[in-house]
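User: I would dearly like some help making sense of a protein record. This is the protein in question:
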Amino acid sequence: MSTGVIALLVAVVGVAGTLLAPVTTAWVSSRSRRQEFELQQRSDLAQRLADDAKANLERRRDIYVALNSGARRYRFLMMEDLYTLRSGSGTAAATEVARVEFQDTYAQAQMLVPDDVLHPCQAVRVALAEARKLMDSLAADGGHDQQKWQEAHTFLIRMWDAITAMQLAMRQDLGISEPPHP
């Protein structure tokens, strides 16, 4: 190989390097920006998912508080009505308000809470409806049938088991209580 050919090859490599340097720099820069953009997108998505999970947890917690307090208030008012029926008075209008509020809250819960919490809530809703039937039957008799009164009283007392099961399911869903170990 002659010096002329070597000089020509060195010149070609030098010119190619000079011409390709900006292209290579632009490509590396573009690739770096694309990776940075993808990283930012993943970070934004992770943040959005975390925010959504937090908001969902807060919505569930709020509906759990409303369901729990609503069920307890409705049961408490039915218990008060039970004793007023025994003394010959009628039921309080507040009991009907509590019933409607609980039903509204339960309807909202059906769209928000997972099935493992909704099933105990359904059991409480059914128990409250059964208690109301017992109360209506007792009220129709004027509250004087001791056997019906005792049946309603026992039912309302035993409702705590369903309410407690509902509370436990809610607490487990919120991560406050651990599930029972078998």
Observations:
- The chain has two domains: 1-42, 58-182.
- Residues 58-182 form a domain with the Four Helix Bundle (Hemerythrin (Met), subunit A) fold (CATH 1.20.120.230).
- The mean pLDDT is 88.
